[in-house]
Amino acid sequence: MTKILLLGGTGDALRIARQLTSVDVYSLAGLGKVPDDLPCSVRVGGFGGSEGMARYIADEEIGLVIDATHPYAAQISANAVNAARHAGVPCWVLRRPAWQPRAGDDWRMIDGWDELTMALAPFRRPLFTLGREPLSHLDEIPPHQFWLVRCLDSHEDTERARIIAARGPFTLEGERALFALQHVDVVVSKNSGGSATEAKLEVARERRLPVVMLRRPSLPAADREFESVAELLDALHLSR
């Protein structure tokens, strides 16, 4: 049986991990909760770049690498493709489709933090859903702004920011309540795709609020690419 190395850390990856076997390995960067109820082994920590991952693939006799990391985990995705190629094994990638703007949406596309800062200048109560990056900029909050930052990391609130440690999926009702209670006037988001965190976009649409959207990074081509967990699992079952 082909031994699989699954690179994860997302809800989609966890769904795949639950379909693996005892010979397979689910690899996490170590951020967030580590599952203890999977049929496969769980590995926590980095590999030391693509070369380190290639050595791990060879040493552990991995026959297939599956990248189911976040769409913005550009470095690990690049390492996975390069390591698999160097080790001579296939690399499959789960890349869920990006969200697309709908009628009534006001999306303002950006490529990095400097552009983000300029895009947020007219607003007072932004909701950040970018992960932990805003936590390193809490001392840069403009005098007229109060930030609401939602991420996986616990962090103390400040006089100018409230930090919400939470993991999706988020409901439409819950997002409506959050926006109303916190007087959100702009949403800051990655274009992650999927349904788990999409409700914030629906609420922004309802309230006619702009969304400052970070463009997806360019990712290297893999041997096979899948848009859904079901599609990938079907191919996996056929290959085994």
TrEMBL record:
Pathway, per record: Cofactor biosynthesis; adenosylcobalamin biosynthesis
The question of whether Oxidoreductase is a record keyword is answered with: yes
Look up keyword Oxidoreductase and say if it applies. Answer: yes
- As recorded in UniProt, its EC number(s) are 1.3.1.106, 1.3.1.54
Q: Which GO terms describe its molecular function?
A: precorrin-6A reductase activity
**Main EC class the enzyme belongs to:** oxidoreductase
The alphabetized UniProt keywords are: Cobalamin biosynthesis, Oxidoreductase
Name the chain's protein: Precorrin-6A/cobalt-precorrin-6A reductase
Native organism is: Paraburkholderia caledonica
